[in-house]
Queue: 3 jobs
Job 1
Amino acid sequence: MSRPVGDQCEEMPKQNVRGGSSGAVRALAMLLSQLPEDVLYHILSYLDYKSLSRLCQVCKTIYHFVNRDAVWRTIAKEFLNTGITRSGTDIYPHIPLKDRVKIAQNWYDGVCKRAIPLKWKTKLLPWLQMDRDTLFLSQAADIGAYHLRQDSGRLQHKPFEIYSGHEGDVCRFVLTDSHLISGGSDGKILVHSRRRNMSMELSGHNQEVNCLDSKDGLIISGSRDRTTRIWTLTSSCPRDTIPMYDRVWSVAISPTLSSFVTGTACCENLSPLRIWDVKRSECVCSLGTQFRRGAGVLDMVFESPFQLFTCGYDTFIRLWDLRLPRKCVMEWEEPHDSALYCIQTDGNHMIASGSSYYGVVRLWDKRQTECLQFFQLSTDPVSSPVYCLRFSSSHLYAALATTLHSLDFSQNPVYIR
């Protein structure tokens, strides 16, 4: 049998629990502290987050037990952006789950502190990626790596490292554990080592590289030249070239590495979403059947081997089950009829999207059809799209034409009593 939580229960100073006399509370605490851990876990699984937070105030022994991540895991899975994915993976294991649940309430209520960490004069089409405490931002032909302070999420004003080499602007870039891979308006793909001062050039496209993705040494790129190319890190030449007969705006490699999806401009009589077999370089199937002309797909993200989220010019976020490709299983419409430039999900319930007008960022709960929260970031007379956004457990960063915005949801978190 599991050991009891504690042999004695020391009362927390200057705190009490609402309702009931202090003697009854101490008696209850003594009883709980003598229970085996597995029994206590089972009892606590019936409590909501408010009850758990109040229970923390009973005594030190109960406080330390209730603060364990295992107690909060089931509750955290029902909140937005706590780092617990639908599959049960914990994205932020270094942050206590109780703290993440508190911050999650701010995401849901839209409570945040806004800031503009970076500004620049020339209008650009920036792109973002995040890796733990580092934010990567493309500006013209360079990509800067900026430290994020762990305590506040604030961005250092100067990059600690710059990745360069393109003769034109960087269109997109992706991160792997060992490389930063960028595609530019010069038609080149540059593979930068993140561990050594080395880079490799991949040449093949004759117009700008609009999109790319990379996993486990595999690189997929799409271009304005109406081709998709398959690359590996072992060669500077493409392994295969696939004619698309339309401009390619987005690509995503399946987590299984056996297939990838392309999103095109939808200017020809072809479906803008198609699934391709990596080994055979052949189209497996198309997604959807009724896309109006010009409904190009600008961004896409896999959430599992069978779940794909897409967005684009037709103002919809769509969820596709790749086992049922003829029709999307869910969709969310941008209420102001704006194109959607970018999306990111938390792997569970939340979607963040960036719109084409006035720098609007929207938060969506997948369990609802209506938008949950929205933030208008652009205050200039001429509006800017949100070209890219990325978020952590407490911060959201959005790149507009001349500014980088941050939304800090850890400010004044809701403390439950």
Job 2
Amino acid sequence: MERMRADSALTQALRSRWDAEATAFVFPWGHMISSLEYVSRITGLRIYGRPVSGYTYPCYHDLAQRLLELLVERSSSLVPRVPLQESLGLFDVGKVAGESEDEHLDRLVLVSRRELASEPGAQADLDLRRFLVLFLGRLLFATRGDTVHCRFLPLLEDLSEVGGYAWGAAFLAHQFNNLGASERQTSTSGFFPFLQVWAYLHLPALGRGDLTRPGLVPIAHRWDSRRDSRNLGDQLERLQEAIDSYPYLDSAVEFPVRDRYHRPGRSFRGLHDTTDWRERAKEQIGNWERRGKAVKSDATTDDAYLQAYALKYGGKVYKSARHQVDVAGEVASLRALLYSAVQDREAAQRQTAELGGSPSLLEAQLAGAVLRAEEAQRHLEERERDLRLTTEHAMDPQGERDQLQGEVHTTRSERDQLRIRAEAAEAQVAEATKELAALWVQRSPGD
């Protein structure tokens, strides 16, 4: 692919909308997620094959000496970056005065080619391992900082096997892991062009990419990052507003809750013991080798999904300044709660009136209706508390504050009405329960 500029504003805007629990981006119109298919189409990386797994060691000194002919300290698992770059001919990687980006890149390629072996053999294998360690550690699976880890080195011993690993699947897992890192981080480490091109394809109205080479593959080869002369803060604010007001898509993409696996904490790096990750992650690897398993969603319709989405997120999906207190979103969430409770109540009442179903089923339906009504009441109280705290801490100018108070006053009136309706729903559910109990008394023991 061609050289691509990093779009920090775009990656920050996307990262702020990542829900680590759902492993998906949360937008006003629903969940969206980058998939293995797009890893393959955008990067060309292999998404099928052997899992990228193996051993990690507390010391890589002997392995690095044998496979890279580079010195790694016995107390470290990091490859010294400067000697690694110099072994590839990259002695002076900085730009010289008056040198353009393209001229800089051409010079580095020319110098590197002079240093690398041109014929197959032991020296070419050594050069390739050095390059792959740098490529994997500093580009594809980059982490924050300027270090190059040795953890991929055992997989590079037999170079004929390297192409058989599912590097694309490991790359996507690495992306998810970085997106789910501490909220204090504002940038995303790793191979940034993937996330940028994914946004160019799925959110074209944001206007952050230029399709300069259509038809080329992989897809990342087609795009350039569009220049934006505004400062980072202004860019980020405009992007958040654009996403908040983005035209709703034809259908929301649901991402059901995934299987939960026990995983080590982020501080674990396997530095003190030799770790066999094929055994430690045996369940995940077994699932991968079986090509995963089908996951059935609880939401049977688009409406059911959107109701559940509004219930979970409410107005919290909005990130721009003008949506800090999103009254419409909060009210939509409350209405979804009440609507679900009322639906359950009406269905239970119909079943009770007909009394044609299983008694145990009627009991379960009524119990579910009562629980949903109680849940609606509890969430109404939580929303009221959240709105009150948000309003108390608002730092808007006086004019905007007055407008906000008016909106909150209107919301309180609507909320009061919703609460009354929810209480009425509870009362009707209780009445239906009494009716069912009376019917049970009237039934003969043989019924």
Job 3
Amino acid sequence: MLRHLPGLLLLLWPLLLLPPPTPAAPGPLARPGSRRLGMRGPAGSPGRRPAPAAPTGAPYSGTGQPGGARGAGVCKSKPLDLVFIIDSSRSVRPLEFTKVKTFVSQIIDTLDIGAADTRVAVVNYASTVKIEFHLQTHSDKQSLKRAVARITPLSTGTMSGLAIQTAMDEAFTVEAGARGPTSNIPKVAIIVTDGRPQDQVNEVAARARASGIELYAVGVDRADMESLKMIASEPLDEHVFYVETYGVIEKLSSRFQETFCALDPCALGTHQCQHVCISDGEGRYHCECSQGYSLNADMKTCSAINKCALNTHGCEHICVNDRTGSYHCECYEGYTLNEDKKTCSAQDQCAFGTHGCQHICVNDRGGSHHCECYEGYTLNADNKTCSVLSKCALGSHGCQHICVDDGAAAYHCECYAGYTLNEDRKTCSAIQEARRLISTEDACGCEATLAFQDKVNSYLQRLNAKLDDILGKLQENESGQIHH
């Protein structure tokens, strides 16, 4: 770098010797109260200066545009009834008048032209006034711009007051294409002049403003600033423009584009909608919520909808709300949720083994079941477990002849008539068998016979005792039955 420094100094030395530039003097009429950019005025006027762009990551916008600098989708011209009032007096040279027409065409290019959007008319004036075309004449940009290009100067005089009065009486009428007061479409007039009015413009402009027409005044070169202030609407610093020559008037077209801009809060990200911002046009918008949410009373934030309460869930049995504003379906006990996640089918709980029945599970219709018990058992109060009803009925008592129940779980054995209960209290022996043994015994007087007889006698004694016992019980039973 150092070895190239001498060469650079030789190249720059002639420039360093030049005197510093003299600041350009302001134009003769550039004074306080005028500016080069107008912002939208009070309520009912076309536009305000756009707000700062929203940071990246703003909530979703219904326009599909991210928040950011003004551009396509952010700024859309508001519908207007717009009348240009252009000075074509002798002081405006032909080339300068061409510049004015270019200025008008460039503003038209920035607007949305159409019967439902902005309508444009042009009033040409000098010492006389001519309405070049009305608001209803052209409904597209190309035909408008061709009509503007055909306008020719009127040459003499500067009757600004007469031009404003003509615009008010003939251009801003419903018959000429202006929309009525119920439409809320702003009425705007832009007057372009380079001289001092030769008539009383103050009172006419005041009547125009009082009728609802918003007046912008553009002064060029020798224009009288005081007259511009008398014409324009308040605040003056937003409605009075000045350029030094017609050569730079075209630069104002982009500034009028901003003036007539209807900002899209959705695209700017200034809407404060919690979920979705929907642009309604003309700078208006409304908020909506994602599916499963409803808009709160503040018309900006959202709350989860209780879809189960709305009864639109489609669940066959049970709807359960989830925290996210969604829901899921469940089924009654004994049912299972089908693949559609809404309907239910009955379960076979007996087959699943989840029934809890001690003995027998019986499936019922509708996915339910009940418990039953084996023979000789009864179902307990819990409807699941079983208790013995009759041990004799169970067949496991072991009695050879007769089983007699003595309660829920007790019993005893008895024998048929002609039999006696053995010592095991279950089996029975026939009484006639003992007697048969005695009759067939050999009557021999041998010791063996005597011993056998003694044995038989002893047996008979025991047998008689048992018979007496049985007879006693029978008598007791008979006496008990008589009492009953």
